[in-house]
Structures are given as C-alpha cells and as structure tokens.
Amino acid sequence: MKIIRVIILCCVLAAAISCTPRGIIPKRKMAAINAEMFLFDQYAAADREIKRITDTTAIYKPLLRSYGYTADDYFRSLEYYLDNSREMAEVLDMTEKILKKRENKILRRIEAGARKNDTTIIEKPRKQKKSDESDDDELPKADETLRMN
C-alpha cells in the first residue's frame, strides 16, 4: 500500500512540475503564436501601405483569439516566461524551429515551381521569316515573354 501512495505522490509531483501555471499559455502554443506574430510583423514591414495603416496590436487580437487566448493571457504568459529564462529560451527555440520549418517549406515550393517552369522555358524553334513579313511578327507575344523569363 505504501508503494502505491509513493507512486501516486510521484505522479502528482511530476505533473505539477511539468505543467505551466494556470492562466499561462503552454510553451508550444506560445511558440506558435510568436511565430505568427513575427511573420505578420515582417509582412507589414515589407509593405509600406500595410505598415502605415496597421496597428499590430489590433491585428494580434484575432490571432490570439484563434488560439483561444486574449491579449491579457499573452502578456501574463510573456511576463511569466521572461521571469523564467530557461523556459523562455525553450519557447524561443521552438519559435525558431517553426519559422525555419516554414522557410524550408516555402523554399521547396519555390524550387519545385522553378523546376516545373524549366520545361516551359525551352522555346520551339522559330520559323524562318519570309521577306514580306513585317517586323512586328518577330516580337514575342506576352505569353512567350513570360515563359522566357
């Protein structure tokens, strides 16, 4: 009977130690939220019009809501993680991995698209121009120009 109590006590302690405090966003979700925020900030910074008209804190509210949290939850969690630097480092490492994974996925899509378009770059041989044809026929059409690039 003592062994069962010890096992239960160990399980309860392990669960208590491994969980974040109530009201704190778990590390994995915090990392995902941070990654989304970073991507939005980069997008907004690259587009002057969006940067000019956008209050990023207003944009973050729907993002946080999509994860089931409020801005207060996020700031409370951020404060908790900043006070616990080891855990914050874990969150940042997870955020970096999420962003690298997305970057690699995008790069693979770009490379796949470039390989797919390589076959369309090859042009059919042009017919020899007859002397009575105008020079306008020699100019490539917009379709061909796009395929050449």
Q: What structural keywords apply?
A:
149 residues; mainly alpha; 7 helices; 74% helix; disordered C terminus
List the helices and strands and how they pair.
Layout: H1 2-18, H2 27-46, H3 48-53, H4 56-66, H5 71-83, H6 85-121, H7 142-148
Helix pairs in contact: 2-4, 2-6, 5-6
Describe the 3D structure.
This protein has 149 residues and is mainly alpha-helical. The chain has a domain at 24-115. It is 74% helix and 0% strand. It contains seven helices and no strands. It has helices spanning 2-18, 27-46, 48-53, 56-66, 71-83, 85-121, 142-148. Helix 2 (27-46) packs across helix 6 (85-121). It starts with a helix and ends with a helix. Mean pLDDT is 75; it is low at 9-17 and 132-149.
Rounded mean pLDDT is 75
Proportion of beta-strand residues: under 5%
What share of the residues lie within helices? over 70%
What series of H and E elements makes up the topology?
A: HHHHHHH
Radius of gyration: 28 Å
Characterize the main sheet.
none
Strand runs, count: 0
Low-confidence stretches: 9-17, 132-149
What class do helices, strands and sheet pairing give? mainly alpha
What is the gist of this entry?
With 149 residues, the chain is mainly alpha-helical. The chain has helices spanning 2-18, 27-46, 48-53, 56-66, 71-83, 85-121, 142-148.
